[in-house]
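Page header: ASSEMBLY MODEL / two components / 801 residues total.
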Amino acid sequence: MSKSRFVAATDLSTRFVDDPGLPDGLFVRGKANIDSYPTVGIVGSRYATPYGKKIARHLGRELSESGVIVVSGLARGIDGCAHEGVIAAQSDVEVAPPVAVVGGGLDVPYPKSNRELWEKVHECGVLISEYPDGTESTKMNFPKRNRIIAALSDVLVVIESTSKSGTNYTVREANKRGRSIMALPGPITSPQSEGTNKLLRDGCAPVLDVEDVLLAVSLERPDLPIARYARNSKGNADIDSLGDELASVFTAVDVTMSSLSTIATRAGINFAQTAICLEELCKRGYVQADGDGWIRA
Amino acid sequence: VLGAIPSASLTGIVGQPVRVEVHVSSGFPGFTIVGLPDAACRESRDRVRAAFLSSGLHWPMRRMTINLAPTSVKKGGAGLDLAIAVGLLVATDALKPDQIANAAFFGELGLDGSIRPIDGVLSLVDAAEADVVIVPPENVAEAELIGRHKVRSAATLSDLLLCLRGDAPWEFPDLDFRENTPQIAPADFVDVHGHEYARWALEIAAAGGHHCMMVGPPGSGKSMLARRLPSILPSLQHTEALETTRVHSVAGLLRGNERLITAPPFRAPHHTASAAAILGGGSAQIRPGDISLANNGVLFMDEFPEFSLHIVEALRQPLEDGLIRIARAVATVEFPARFQLIATMNPCPCGEGGLSGACRCSDSGRLRYSRRISGPILDRLDLRIYVDRTDPNALLAKPNGESSALIRERVVAARQVSTNRGLRCNAEMAGSVLDTFAPLSTRAKNLIVAKLEAGALSARGFVRIRRVARTIADLSGAPDVLSDEHVAAALSLRPDAQALRVAS
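Prediction written out in full:
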């Protein structure tokens, strides 16, 4: 494992110039020309729902393919998923590299389950930390790490956050720096969407599509061109082409995990029939099975 | 003077014929028992003497030796008391040999001369090499179950002496209640609010005899549902009933003239129970554990991951062979242990995992929890039933589900179909006969092939899916070929689903 370099913060990105309350220098592993791309921070809860994770991956991939750097914290949950999306996009030369800001030494992957992702980010992009090698990641470091993410992002997208999430700290820091903030709407019954839904109520722009983010980025940074606009939008399923029974079962499948019994009750048909409809929907890619339940794909 | 009385002692649940030989001779007065008696058996000496004196019988002041033949087998318990006493009566000429010809004796003596009930009469009588068996009054009904012997009984030693001499008639105890009708009505499915899915799945489990795992958050009703399973199981066949009664008798659970157990037993050992309590064992006398008491019934293991791992691993043999072999220094015994395993667990340590998404467990906590479940055991469970919390509306409404009796009718009909195939239940269907008994329709085949190709189904899972699909088809009265609907339903009760997912 290569040792990390210590560089002046302003050498890393001009976004750090005149920034209040940042360290002068940062530890860096890997390389990326951050200033030649627009940047979007994707942040969210560590205890993410399958919905949040899916959107984080989707946005990570689409943004990266559009030539927008995704900045995130490589934590469990939303952060990791966003970078998974970015890494999945790294086949093309035109795509933007991943940038990760972490809360510990750059040679101490945290959480351990993200070690592989950590190495991939190092290969394709850059890892940043204000802590020297060997420092263990502790929860206390995360809020400090979050201010660097906020400083580095032209637009901040909050995928999911509870009312007390550390993500709220990132939002405050981004606000302080006048960055534009966007949030993903979620079910009002989901605790993981409480924070984001409040942001939306308070006037923050909603993310319904990757294009929404790209538009915000181009308004924010007209000086930095976007390589290309994403081809496809949300990829919503075409309900009309399904038959009556399949459509009613598909409608009964939620964006959060549901058990077969719940789906059958909502659809109003028996368990065996529901099971076969789910298998069919699964085959056609409309839903997916995960553990004890089903969720929209 | 020599008397030899047939009796029997227990090894496991099998009776071993024992001949009690009594030798009375001149010499220094004394009383010895030889032939590997255990402590309780050796104490016979004092009980027999006291019983003799209390009954006003003459206690000979001579040298008396009791030999329990064959001498190589260890004899336990007080069940030989009566045979020893009768042997002494014969040896001292209080009884003539022809008065006890062809009779075997079983029973424990009280100091007052009363004849007390003993455990395992069913097995002991079965082993008796005699036409007439004399048992304690409380054990008469049980002894009658064998049906090969004339069963006689007396309440005290002096009564017995009179009857044997022909001075008093044998009293025939009331034999009206031969079957064990449960005193308390078992829990019924009619009281269950909602839970349509679990009802459906448990009906399949009952019809096919499938082992299953119920997963769900705490308080969702897993145990409540599992306790109702026996109410929809078919009654035991006569041979099964005899076998189950035998085990219960040996364990001392049949008391007070109890009869044949015809309802499938339900055993729910606590997770802190010792290995000997669950599997069977003990040092002086090897006793059947819960898995054998659940023979032909249900073994319910609530909070499965909390059971100690070596106990769970030891379930492999019983799950495979339907019996457990217990080897101790004293002896090696086999107990029947063909049970239907119903296990429950939470989705994660905090219990809020699974579908609600409110889990706050750490990754390492979840991992530890998942490691507590043995893969090979999980492999033997055919069904995985996710039990959701009941919808509040269903909880407040009047329960409107079917009664156990209705469900049971369908279960019995489905079991009959598998009996016609020569199987006890579909869960025991061997892989080699699957093509004969569970052929797949083209659409069903396609469905399974897709799963196999996607790596979502293992070869073992494939066999289990077909067994479960067979049961589902049997329940719906479908003919031979399994349709895609049956297979999809079986797949939805996914046995191969990952026990626990570690959040990424």
